[in-house]
Amino acid sequence: MHCFCLLIKKTATRNLLSNQMVSQLVVVKNESGLHARPASVLVKHATKYQSEFTIKMYGYSVNGKSILGVMTLAAECGAEMELVLEGPDEQEALRELVALFENKFQSHNEQE
Amino acid sequence: MNQFTQPVLLSGKPAAPGIGIGQARILKSETTGVSPETIGPESITENLKKYEKASSFLLQEYEMLKSSTGDRDAKDILDAQIQILQDPELEKTIRRQIKQERYSMEYAVFNTFNDYIRLFQSSSVRWANDRVIDVVSIRDELIDAAREKKKVIRVKPNEIVFAEDISPAVMVKISRTEIAGIVIERGGLTSHVVILSQSLGIPCVINARWNRYELKKGASVIIDGIAGQVILNPTADQKETYRQRKGDEVLRFKKALDWVLSPNETRCGSSFTLRANVEFLEELPKVNEYMAEGIGLLRTETILFESENFDVVKQMKFYSTLLEQTGDHPVTIRLFDAGGDKLLEDSVRESNPFLGWRGVRMLLDKKDLLRKQLEAVYRVSALFPGRIRILIPMVSRTEEIERVREVCDEVQRNLKKQSLQPDGKIPLGIMIEVPSAVLVADQAAALCDFFSIGTNDLTQYTFAVDRGNERVSELFDSFHPAIWKLIKMTKEAADRAEIPLTICGEMASRPEAAACFVGLGITDLSMNSASIPKVKSVLCRHTLAEMQKLAADVTATGEIQEIHKLLTKWRF
Lengths: 112, 572
What we know:
Chain A is an alpha+beta fold. Chain A contains 3 helices and 4 strands; from the N terminus they run βαββαβα. The radius of gyration of chain B is 27 Å and the shape is globular.
C-alpha cells in the first residue's frame, strides 16, 4: 500500500461534464517510476496547456500541474493511472502527455 | 595539544570520488521556527502580499542561480525547485490558510510545506526521502525572505564543507567556489548534493557522523571520497601522505589504464579473471570500458527496495538490461541481502540487525519474496541460457542451501507448467561471509555449485567488529592472519569438492590482496569497476611464481605487521 494518501484526499475530484473532457489510461514505463525528474518533465509539459489536468490513481486524484502532488503519488514502474484533461486544448494536451508516458519521459526538446 | 586537535578518523559512505585537503567550514542548518499565529481580517491582504513578494523574490534568486551555473544537472535541479515554489496546489493551500484559517503568512507557509514534508519523510520509496531537504529548504528560504533575513553563504576556496544536509540552491551557490570536499552527516546516494558532487567533481562523503566532534571552523581536514573517510586534524605526516596520494593517484590511474586492453594474463602467461561488482545500470559503461568479464556480484538491494513487493516485471527488466549489455559474460545475481527491518513494515526494530533477520534468513521466512526474485531470475534465464549464476547471501548453516534449492526447483516447475523454458542449470552458490560457513565448507560444498567470499562481512563477523563504530573500527582489518586462514580453508574445501571459488569482497579491489589471491590459486575476482585497471596492472606485471611466493609468506606468518610489510610492495 502506498502511504501517500493523506494529502491527496484534500484535492477534491471535480464532477466533470462528460462531453467536456478527455481521458486515457496510461502505464508508467520508466524503470525507476515517476520519481522527481520525470514528475518535473510531466508538470512542465502540462503547464503549457490551458486545460485542467487531473491524474487519477488508486482512487485518488491529484492536480497534474502540481509537482508536489505528482511526486506524492510515488508511482512506480508498472503503475496505471488515468490522465483527465478538460479545457480548450484538451485533445492536444492529452496526446502530448500520453506520449510522454510512452517515451518514458525522455523529452527531446530539453537539450538547448 | 588538547584532545580536540588530535587526529580523528571518521568513516562514512563514499559518495563522490577524489581526495581533498583543506580547512573545515561548517554549514549550520538552522531550523526555521515559526509559532502558530493567527491574524485579524484587516491583515489578510497584507499577508497575502507578503507571500507574493517572498515568493517572487525567491523565484528571482533561483533564476539567477540557474543562469549562473553551466552545469546541466544543476540547472535541472533548480528548475525542479522553481516548479515546487510555483506549485499551484501549494499556492492555493497557502492562500486559503491565510484567507480562511487566518494564519499568518509565515505559519501558513510552514504548515502547508510541513504536510508535504511529512509525506515525503514517511515514504517507503527511497527517492522520496531524499527530496525532503529540497522541500524543507524552499520552506525555510520563503520564510527567511518574508522576514527579510538574508542568509549569505560564503565559502572560501579549499574549504571542506561540513553539513547535516545541503539544499540544491546552497549546493549550487557553494560550488561556484572551488571547495575541496563535502562531508554530510546524513544524506542518501540519490540526494541532490551527491548527484551534484559527482557531476561537479567535488569529493563527497555521506553518513559521516562529524556532528559529535567539536569541529572548529578552519580546522585542518582531509577527505577521501574513494574510501569514504574523513580525517579531522590530520598530522603533518598524514597531510603529506594524502598530498602525495592525490598526485600519485592521478598519475597511476593514467598508467593503469594502459593495461586495460591487455589480455588477463600474468607476466608468465597464466590467466586470471576480473569481473565487476554492480548495483546500478549507470555503472555499466565503466564495466565495459574496463573490460570486466561480466558481473561477479550483482547487488539487488536497491532495485528491490525501489520496487514495491519485489515486482517481477521490474526485476526482469533490470536483469535483462544487465545481461544484454555484458556481452556473453556471466552475471552473478546475489539474492536480496539486507535486513528485513528496512523492507517490511510489520517487523519490529532489531537491537542488533547485523546479527539478525537478514539475507537468506529473511528470504526463507518471506518465501513469497524469495519466490518472486527467483521467478524473475528464472524467467530471464530462458532468454540468456548459461549466463546467470545465483548467489545466496548470509549463509550460516547448510540447511539454508537446501531450502533455497527447494524453492528454486519449485519456481522452475511452475514456470515449466506455463510452458516456459527456464535455464535448468543455473549454478547456485553461497556467499562465504560468516565464519560458521567456512567451518562447514566441506558439507556446504556438497550442496552448492560455487563459493564466493565476501571479505568485509567475513572480517566483521570474525572479529565481531562493526567498522562503522569508530571506537572499535581499528580492530577491523581484513589482512589479519585470521582472515587469510579462513580464506585458505575455504579454498581447500572448494578444491576438495572441485567447485569454483571467487572473491567478490572489497579485498579483491586491493591489488596487493588480489596478487595474494592469485598466488593462492583464487583467480576469479570481482570488484568495483573503478578498481579493475589498478588491480589488473599489478597482476599483469608479475609472474605467478612471485605471487605464489607472496601467498605462501602471507599465510605462513602469524604477524599482522609482517603481512602488511609483505604486501606494501604490491600496492601499485
